[in-house]
Design a protein that fits this description.
The protein has helices at 5-18, 53-61, 123-126, 154-168, 181-186, 192-201, 216-224, 249-252, 255-261, 280-286, 319-329, 339-347, and strands spanning 37-40, 66-67, 70-73, 79-81, 104-108, 111-115, 173-174, 177-178, 211-213, 231-235, 267-270, 290-291, 333-336. The two termini are 18 Å apart. The chain is built from twelve helices and 13 strands. By secondary structure, it is an alpha/beta fold. Helix content is 30%, strand content 13%. The strands form four sheets. Strands 7-2-1-13 form a four-stranded parallel β-sheet. It has a four-stranded parallel β-sheet with strand order 9-10-11-12, covered by helices on one side. The protein has a three-stranded mixed β-sheet with strand order 4-3-8, covered by helices on one side. Helix 2 (53-61) runs parallel beside helix 4 and helix 11 packs across helix 12.
Length: 348
């Protein structure tokens, strides 16, 4: 079905109203009795600018079981939540003349990136910035919220998750990802000790926190902290983890690779394209791992051809059919920009 901007905004507003009724309690660190865990990717990034309090809140209001904060550090070594440490696409920093001189080019995980970077700002400076929609050409409906939200710390996300848990009468888990951990370690800004400190300070248990990373060494460092929280190995489609260049993601998804992952992690998170038409779900389960593919989105350009509807790449396609396919395959979780749609599909 093709939806216009007005229809989408009305749908979002309706979702907020409907969400006033508390949902049943989920098993936060594992699959729900009623179906896979629904993970709000950067909150509800399809409906609100990502990694904002509004995005996380809307995700939980519409039924998300977990919310995902990506972790990067500040200059004064505080964990904040941004998709990348380069923040020109997700904040208004490019329009701030006082920070114009901080635009630079860096090599992050072997790739040259130009812009403004969280590690060059103190937390106090980052707090003066405002969040904006990262994909305005795709989700112009979300630009109405530009400038309304501040950059959050990981601690603030934990506090919000607990507040929403009390409001909705169910446990909402945080699902932090360590971003570019080898790169930040090289700068003297390691992520893992800070993350472990937040988990310990807040006494986050298995039902309240699952830690993910694309880098196995980062997960092993977290495992060495003996925090008792589940670990999730994220898997890409090309190449391999930056910290283990001799191993490819394809090798990690073989039975032998999955057995190795099971030595330190509880979950794998592959790109959804690696799941359909393969034995990966069965192989993961055989290795004792749970599996949660990413990233489910409703726009045509992110859907397989058979689920697209309408002529525009940003029109909504048949997202429900895609969720139904993966639910039938037996996945244990889905990572989605539209947790409301995933929850509705789970009820079908």
């Amino acid at each position: 079905m093709q939806l216009g901007r007005r229809s989408l905004l009305l749908a979002a507003a309706a979702g907020t109203t409907a969400a006033a009724t508390p949902s049943p309690a989920p098993a936060a660190a594992g699959p729900r009795a009623g179906g896979p865990v629904v993970i709000g990717h950067r909150g509800a990034a399809g409906w609100r600018p990502e990694h904002t309090a509004a995005s996380y809140t809307f995700a939980v209001q519409t039924g998300a079981d977990w919310i995902e904060p990506d972790l990067v550090p500040t200059k004064d070594h505080v964990l904040v939540v941004r998709h990348e440490n380069e923040i020109s696409q997700t904040t208004d920093v490019a329009g701030r003349p006082e920070f114009a001189g901080r635009r630079t080019t860096k090599t992050v995980d072997g790739r040259a990136v130009t812009g403004w970077f969280t590690e060059d700002f103190t937390l106090a400076e980052l707090k003066t910035l405002r969040a904006v929609e990262r994909l305005p050409q795709v989700r112009d409906r979300n630009t109405v919220f530009d400038g309304r939200e501040r950059v959050m710390t990981f601690q603030e996300v934990v506090d919000l998750a607990r507040r929403l848990s009390r409001i909705h009468g169910r446990t909402v888990a945080v699902f932090p990802e360590t971003k570019h951990p080898t790169y930040f370690r090289s700068l003297g800004l390691p992520l893992e000790p800070l993350l472990a400190s937040v988990i310990r300070r807040n006494r986050l248990g298995r039902r309240e926190c699952v830690v993910q990373s694309f880098e196995p060494t980062s997960l092993r460092r977290i495992a060495a902290e003996r925090l008792g929280v589940p670990l999730w190995q994220a898997l890409g489609t090309r190449g391999g983890p930056f910290d283990t260049p001799a191993v490819t993601y394809q090798e990690m998804m073989t039975p032998a690779g999955l057995a190795e992952i099971a030595r330190y992690a509880d979950w794998i998170g592959p790109d959804k394209a690696s799941v359909a038409g393969t034995s990966l779900v069965a192989d993961a389960h055989a290795a004792g791992l749970r599996i949660g593919p990413y990233t489910f989105r409703a726009e045509n350009q992110f859907l397989p051809a058979e689920f697209r509807r309408g002529s525009g790449p940003n029109d909504f396609g048949d997202a429900f059919a895609e969720y139904a396919l993966y639910y039938r395959l037996g996945v244990d979780a889905v990572v989605t920009d539209f947790p409301d749609l995933a929850v509705m599909a789970r009820r079908s």
